[in-house]
Amino acid sequence: MGSIFFSYICLIKIKIMKKLEYKGRTFFYKIESGECGDHGGFSCHETIFHRFVKVSTRKKYWLFGPDVIYDEYEELFKFDYSIEKPTTTKEKLRADLDKQVALLDRYDEIKKGEIV
After folding, report:
1. Are the C-beta atoms of 22 and 101 separated by less than 8 Å?
2. Which residue blocks in the chain are alpha helix, DSSP H?
3. Burial zone of 27 (CB within 10 Å; 0-12 exposed, 13-18 middle, 19+ buried)
4. Rounded distance, CA 5 to CA 25, Å?
5. Where are the domains of the chain?
6. How would you label 56-80 residue by residue, b for 16+ Cβ within 10 Å and e otherwise?
7. How would you class 101 by CB atoms within 10 Å of its CB: exposed for 0-12, middle for 13-18, buried for 19 or more?
8. What is the pTM (predicted TM-score) of this model?
9. Within a 13 Å sphere around the CA of 45, how many CA atoms are in the beta-carbon half?
């Protein structure tokens, strides 16, 4: 019974993602923060970027109940800093995004069979 309750709690814990459009691509991101360092002396942030995959449905209460519609996302990459922090410059963010977009383009080429 405990595992069913735990999985239900994990399913209803939904974080709202923000939208970012860059060079013709649409990314969804969320910023997660936590304590790091000795005894939680520092606060660390990371930005996780996702792409939208599809809209799915599931039962509200595991095997029964009404259908719940939700969005599925695929994690693409992470930055070890918050992109919404005022100390993050546009130049640094653009450079990091350019690098990741180039890697995603290369990944798409490999999936199409364009190895060389």
Report:
1. yes
2. 2-12, 90-112
3. buried
4. 38
5. 2-112
6. eeeeeeeeeeeeeeeeebeebbebe
7. middle
8. 0.73
9. 11
Which amino acid, one-letter code, is at 14? I
Tell me how long the chain is.
116
Bridge-based pairing of strands 25-36 and 64-79 is unpaired
Q: Which two tokens stand for residue 85?
A: 């922090």
Which amino acid is present at 5?
Answer: F
Query: Over its length of 116 residues, how does the chain's per-residue pLDDT go in tens digits?
Result: 443 433 333 333 446 889 999 999 999 999 998 877 776 667 788 999 999 999 998 888 888 889 888 888 999 999 999 999 999 999 999 999 999 999 999 999 999 999 88
- Report residue 27 as tokens: 């990314």
